[in-house]
Amino acid sequence: MNRRSLLGAAAATHRRPAWSPESPLRVQVVVFDGVEEMDYTGPFEIFSIAARMSSGAATVTLAGGGEPGEITGYYGSRFTVTARLDPAAADLIVVPGGGYGNKTGPGIWGEIAKGVIPAALRAAPRPGLTISSLCTGAFLLAEAGLLTGRRCTTHHLTTAEIAERGGVITNARVVDDGDVVTASAVTSGIDLALHLVRRELGADVAVRIENLIGFERRGTVWRA
Prior knowledge:
Layout: H1 3-13, E1 25-31, H2 37-53, E2 58-64, E3 69-72, E4 78-81, E5 83-84, E6 92-95, H3 108-114, H4 116-122, E7 130-134, H5 138-143, E8 151-152, H6 159-164, E9 168-169, E10 174-176, E11 180-183, H7 188-201, H8 203-213, E12 221-223
């Protein structure tokens, strides 16, 4: 079975389980040196609120591509991660972007050169796992071969490059192709997270989060 068939089979078998405190939706938000701060903080906060509002039917973890330790974001913020990306222990992975304009510095190009995150993502697909990206995080999915022949989106300035890497660019703010979900530029990470909260935990939780943070989802969500 080729990768396209494998991913298609995973998409076809994706059904929203009844997530509960006993069996929560396990979310891992990937972080790395050079990660765009808003790319990861938006989804991380949305899923953290969702965990509270669903009485523990979701968990969220910041997961580094390498060993646990200090991470320096694109704009200089520093924080410590204690967990490592572990797709086998996740139901949903969120991959942010960052560092696109610096080919030799930290960010997506540095992570592609290291190869650790792309390798983990390449081996990750299985029924029940959703892998998502926002902004230039799509490059890490493309490097892993996860966007080949798949509907997707990314930052509007980089769509041609993702198309060259096999992605089928779709003009939408969020593109839900089943087990692969992508979003466009930086702030779309909030829309991505709210869409996935609605899909996995229900509309009531998503609407309560929107009201709490004073945010209204915008743009088109394309769904397979």
